[in-house]
Each structure stands twice: as C-alpha cells, then as structure tokens.
Amino acid sequence: MIKSKKSLSFRALVVGFGSMLALAIPAYAQTAMPGSIKIENAYTRATVPGQQVAGGFMKIENKGSTADQLLSASSPVAGEVQLHEMVMEGNVMRMRQLKDIPVPASGAVELKPGGLHLMFMNIKTPLAVGETVPVKLKFAKAGEVEVKMPVNAMGAGAMKH
Is 151:134 a contact under the CB 8 Å cutoff? Predict the structure, then answer.
C-alpha cells in the first residue's frame, strides 16, 4: 500500500510539473493563439536611456469567419500603449493614433515599421536586448490576449519618433 501511494504521489508530481512546464513555455514564445486570433513574430526594439517611446510589431491572423478589431493594448513597461499608423501626407510621413485596428475574417494584418504599429509611450526603464516585454492586447471579439515581445537590437529601418 505504501509503495502504491509513493507511486501515485510521484505520478501526480510528474503530471503537475508537466502541466506547469506546458503553461510556462508559451509565456516566452513569440506566438499566441486565443480562439481564432493568432499572434506571430511579435517584437519591439531596444531603447536608450531617456528614450520615452518605442514601437511594437507583430502579425495578427484571424482564423475565424468573423472580422475582429484590436481595440487597445497595455504593458507594465509603459505609461500608455497606443495604436498607431504611419501615413504619407503629401511628401511628409506622419504618425497618427488610431481608435482600433481592423482584423479581417480569414485574413491578417501586419504591424510593422513604417505602417500600423503599437506605440509604447512614457517607457519607465530602457528596453534591453534579450528581455521580453509583456503586452496585453484587447480585441472586440477575441477578448484579451497576452503576448511576450522579445526586445531586439536597434537596427536599420527603426522608426524615428
């Protein structure tokens, strides 16, 4: 009887540890998939001391048959996260805040430098290469989605704000 209790306890420990590991692995991935919304290749870029803003980029894929909208985003690393787009007005590239970002049914939208993106405002501490930034995305239909965005090195094509 004691032997089977130990065996049962060991099995419960292994199953419990496996469950925790399964939950921990997606937390550090660049991909999240809640319901019909799939987030891929999410990232942000490193900042320098005193830099108050940074962009956030990703591909948002809607596998569902109903359109959705990204309504807002938030992160503990920033005082505010806004939805933005870059647009040409004459010969000048301008950035403007958006109320939402449509995600078409059975389609995708890409948040990338020079186009649609997240704008981290009032960054609390510099973002360092190798860190991850937790971001909560709020969709009209899919609800809240948490994403961990790796911080990549600054490089060519960086948005200038």
Answer: no
Burial class (CB in 10 A: 0-12, 13-18, 19+), 120: buried
Q: How far apart are CA 136 and CA 148, in angstroms?
A: 9
- What whole-number distance in Å separates Cα of residue 56 and Cα of residue 132? 12
Burial per residue of 9-36, b for 16 or more beta-carbon CB atoms within 10 angstroms, e otherwise: eeeeeeeeeeeeeeeeeeeeeeebeeeb
pLDDT per position as a tens digit, 29-66: 345 455 789 999 999 999 999 999 999 999 999 999 99
Distance CA 158, CA 148 (A): 20
Rounded Cα distance, 55 and 78, in Å: 11
Quote the pTM value: 0.74
